[in-house]
Amino acid sequence: MTTVVEAVDLRRTYRTTTGTFRRGSVEVEAVRGISFEIQEGELFGLLGPNGAGKTTTIKMLITLLIPTSGTARVLGHDVVEDAKWVRQHIGYVFGGDRGLYERLSALDNLRYFAELYGVDPKVQRQRIHELLELVGLSGREKERVEGYSRGMRQRLHIARGILHDPPVVFLDEPSIGVDPVGARELRSMIAGLRDAGKTVLLTTHYMFEADELCDRIAVVAHGQILAEGTPRDLKQGVAEGTVVEIEVYGIDETALAGVRAIAGVTGVTIEERDQAQVIVVQTATGAEVTQAIMARLDGVRLGRVTTREPTLEDAYVALVTDHGPAGLA
Amino acid sequence: MTRLLRTMTLGWKLHFKQESRNPFFLWIVVCTPVIYATMAYFLFQGGQKQATLVAAAVGSAMMGIWSLTTTAAAAALQRQRRLGILELLVASPTPFWATFLPITLAIATIGIYSLGTGLLYVRLLFGVPVSVDDWLAFVVAVPPTILSIGMLGFLMGSAFVRFRAAWMVGNLFEFPVWTICGFLIPLALLPGWVAPIAWVLAPTWGMNALRNAALGTSAWPDIAMCTLLSIVYAVLGGLLLKAFLRMARERATLGLT
């Protein structure tokens, strides 16, 4: 396997100003020593909460930001020293409404970016036509983008990002704000990129998206990678056994501490759901802890109790709330 | 080189199309010259010399073009930054000067509406015939003059890439430049110390060329000087843009996210 994307101890610090009359500056470490490798044809996910450093990492890899320290290479070329070469061989797509000329048609948007990426004029028309078919915008290409829905814009973004048929594609939260049907179509398109042999780096904070699409995932929080592995590795690493969910109405910290202290319990988190709270208890393989939990919750008003297999979301929540292992990498 | 020229031409065409559809821009280019031309007409009507009135109308149109270039080019770039397009343009393999220059040129070109509006307005409302003594020189002088304004916008605009708040500075330059370049008042009437500043501003020579063509004196040296300075601006702007772009990548000012 060939390493296509390589990040070594990447760091990025932002300086922001504070105050109006007494101006000061604050340094924020957005990325704090991130290292990973993506192999050829792999779909690699960066999963993390808002502000985790995912977009900053991607912007360094696509040459828009210069790292404060560390190095990054794409297809063996340094993203700072050889930025032009890297730009020619990568595609970049981000989510949301932005990134398109609103008063121009989809066709004009694609024509312009085809020129900017040096797509041969002889094949431009054919390539644009194929991509419009692929993203389902054929017949709407002459309409102004300002009249497009968010899903249509996002599909146009993907077409724009792969116009020059790049071997590496960076997708920064591409499904953000897209309705469920549109998001499903997008996921299918992203899977199609991998099937076409492209190497893809996807950032998202949708667990099911990462679980469904990614070959490997790195969970990022506070600018650092907390864990890295296949979705299955991550799930097993955090909760090898089962997950018990108990609906409660009013619980104090003492009772929760009691649950955490039970042998076989590997993690406990609490979620607010309407009037109730749900205690999510991760357990070790083979541990039978339901009775013990009930005993510790004696006196607390209980609702439904369910047992299920661990999901990627359990792994993620455990990792980013420091209830899971420090990392699997 | 052919590819770059094709990319720049398409960039100019599409930005012209995109910005021409902006009602705010059209408001500026159509209404501003009308207001300026009214002021110019009443200022110059004492002279009763038709060529002077035409020169005043042209000057007011130039003021409109310059206003558009400083305020609207800066606003367009800020909007591209907000929309994330600026990052996409930088992330493409095309040298950024070849992407950025067509934007400022397209906006200066929209200023042609200003020229048309200014001349048509004084003709229709005040009955001033558009009498130009040397039509050939006048027509030849229009493209380099508009180009010079676009290039000055390009030179100043390079700072907009690095500094998010530079668009405000662009607005500050709106009034001084049209005064110093003699758009409304001939340079000879301004204090002597202004002259050296005016000489390094390409639009001064463009305006002189248009005025001289209207009055029947030779406009060709002014056209040559205007073109030469525009080339200097292009080179300087390109170098500055490269430096500012590197700084923008270091200091994360390309996007607003």
Describe the structure concisely:
Chain A is an alpha/beta fold.
Could you please describe the fold and organization of this structure?
- The complex is a heterodimer of chains A (329) and B (257).
- With 329 residues, chain A is an alpha/beta fold.
- Chain A has 2 domains: 3-230, Rossmann fold (3-Layer(aba) Sandwich), CATH 3.40.50; 240-309, 2-Layer Sandwich (Alpha-Beta Plaits).
- Chain A has helices spanning 54-61, 83-88, 106-116, 121-134, 150-161, 180-195, 207-213, 231-238, 253-260, 290-296, 312-320; strands at 3-18, 24-39, 43-47, 69-74, 77-78, 90-94, 168-172, 199-204, 216-221, 224-229, 243-249, 265-273, 276-283, 301-308.
- In chain A, α3 (106-116) packs across α4 (121-134).
- Chain A starts with a strand and ends in a 9-residue tail after the last helix.
- The longest helix of chain B is centred in the N-terminal third of the chain and has 33 residues, at 50-82.
- Chain B has one domain (2-251).
- Chain B has 257 residues and is mainly alpha-helical.
- The model of chain B has no long low-confidence stretch (mean pLDDT 81).
- In chain B, 79% of the residues lie in helices and 0% in strands.
- Chain B has helices spanning 2-20, 23-44, 50-82, 85-90, 96-110, 112-125, 135-162, 166-172, 174-180, 194-199, 202-215, 220-251.
- At the A-B interface, α2 and α3 of A face α1, α4 and α12 of B.
